[in-house]
């Protein structure tokens, strides 16, 4: 990792949901947090942790459907559980690549973490299939390859979604967005339109 990231921000995600997010980097990796609001209701609340190499390490998610916890195991499998209205559904032994992505539908920070992980892997103008745990709000997890395209230096596309843009630090460029440093005395970043 090059620069230590410790920022928070807000804006409107590609799915028009209001997003409040943060990233805090430490010696054990990065901790990404996000709350997405659709109208006056919380659509999702997410904690995503990545290791020092930028790989997915742990996820805790709340949606109106329930709670989901996921983590990869050293044996190349994905584990966790979903707690939903009719009980607990276990995630056990799903085949997993060490560099697999966690992608909650509509999540800004899942895309940010993916961009941070793939920035040195996918060249500008190139694309590739990449294994991902695709998570809908219903928590019915699907592990499958998705196409990730690096359109230009700052713009990426995940599957058939709208392009996702990051600034030079790898932070999101969101409609109506603002970015603030988590540390006192740091200068705040410019607003996005």
Report on this structure.
The structure is a single chain. The chain is mainly β and about 190 residues long. The protein is built from one helix and 14 strands. The protein has one helix at about 110-120; strands at about 5-10, 20-25, 30-40, 40-50, 55-65, 65-70, 75-85, 85-95, 100-105, 125-135, 140-150, 155-160, 165, 175-180. The strands form two sheets. A nine-stranded antiparallel β-sheet has the order 8-7-6-5-4-3-2-1-14, with helices on one face. The longest helix is centred in the middle third of the chain and has 11 residues, at about 110-120. The radius of gyration is 16 Å and the shape is globular. The protein starts with 5 loop residues before the first strand and ends in a 12-residue tail after the last strand.
